[in-house]
Each structure stands twice: as C-alpha cells, then as structure tokens.
Design a protein that fits this description.
The protein has three helices and five strands; from the N terminus they run ααβββββα. The chain is of the alpha+beta class. The strands form two sheets. A three-stranded antiparallel beta sheet has the order 2-1-5. The structure holds zinc ion (ZN).
C-alpha cells in the first residue's frame, strides 16, 4: 500500500475507481450524480435535457459502452452508483492529479466549459 503525499487516497483506491470509467453505461444511467475528473463537470444523468454520450471502446461485444463527459468529451466520468465519492471535491482532485499528472482542465484551473466538436472530412 502506498500513499501519495499529494492526496489522502491510496493509489489502489484511485486505480479501482478508474476501472469504473470504462464499460460503465449502465452504472452511469443508474447513478444520481456523475462527475468528470478531467474537467470537473458534475451532472445528474437522469435530468431532463441532459445528453449522455457513449463510445464503443474497441467494439468489444457484450461489454457496456463507455461514458464520455457531456462537457469535455473525455472518458473520465464516474457515477455514484460505482460506490466512489464522486461528489467530493477532494476525491475528484485526487483522481485528476493521479491520472492526468497535472495535465487536466482541473489542474490547469480552467473553467468548466462545453467543448464543441468539429467534424473533419477526410477523403
Ligand atoms: Zn469533462
């Protein structure tokens, strides 16, 4: 067991939480609050008007789709149905520091804002 001095959560705990960010469609849909630990966006997946995005990672048949953040599009979304404290700012900070190593919108202190996607046509 190792503890990172930058945050109070054990590495194993943060790794376990990370496993809930893939193939997590049913978990996200069962959650009442979700948070993205890349940009810090928090949302309620069953709110009317919320648009959920998923990707079929590697097209693995029989596995759930993977949730993408409705704000920034990164696959770093955790729902409270995972059992992790997604509404705790300290936990989200620990996740972003551990997994993005200082290179996230949260660590860059960038505001939460909607990323617009541009379709690029390739011949
Ligand atoms: Zn995000």
């Amino acid at each position: 067991m190792s503890t990172n001095p930058r945050h109070p959560y054990r590495e194993e705990y943060l790794k376990a939480a990370h496993r809930h960010t893939i193939y997590n469609r049913s978990e996200i849909e069962a959650s009442s609050v979700c948070c993205c630990y890349y940009c810090g966006h928090q949302f309620h997946p069953r709110d009317p008007g919320i648009e959920l995005f998923y990707t079929d990672v590697n097209n693995r048949k029989g596995l759930d789709e993977t949730s993408l953040c409705p704000m920034c599009g990164i696959d770093s979304v955790l729902g409270d149905a995972s059992g992790f404290p997604v509404a705790e700012a300290g936990f989200i900070q620990a996740m972003t520091t551990y997994w993005f190593d200082g290179f996230s919108r949260i660590d860059a202190e960038m505001p939460i804002e909607k990323v617009t996607w541009t379709r690029i046509e390739v011949e």
